[in-house]
Amino acid sequence: xxxxARRTLLLALASLPWAAHAQPAELxxxxxxxxxxxxxxxxxxxxxxxxxxxxxxxxxxxxDFIAHPVALELEYARALVGRxxxxxxxxxxxxxxxxxxxxxxxxxxxxxxxxxxxxxGDRLTGVSRPGAGMRFFFNGKPSGEVAHADFAxxxxxxxxxxRTSESKLRQAxxxxx
Length: 177
What we know:
Layout: H1 3-14, H2 27-30, E1 35-44, E2 47-56, E3 70-76, H3 82-96, H4 101-114, E4 123-129, E5 133-138, E6 141-146, H5 149-160, H6 167-173
């Protein structure tokens, strides 16, 4: 590849939406060596809700996403109530698998604590720990943890499962869009 072609390629890569996005500081300790795989936006009736970014480590495979430590970063485009985010998350999780009512109540309580009210520009990052659950960070600071492997599988499944209700967002996160 000659110098002109190389410069053209580098300029094209730099213009990709995720190329300039820096790794969140909280991933340095929680997910060392993570790289951005993809990003996309969730909109509802053309109102942008958030931008989602998927951070992965070496060896990540989409078909077995739960076996790998990953981070899902959500940057909110508008104000939302944390309790409503937790409730909607639980609804989506139940679409992907059975959640006994006692477990659902415990998970809802944990998410309600971990998910504060969001303002435009706020970030919520969930970091999975295979076999152990998830840790959450609000604007880079720890906000909660759910120590249950099924929680991590169903929560991440909202975005990464083949059965997600947002298949275009899934494709964007997995770098397939």
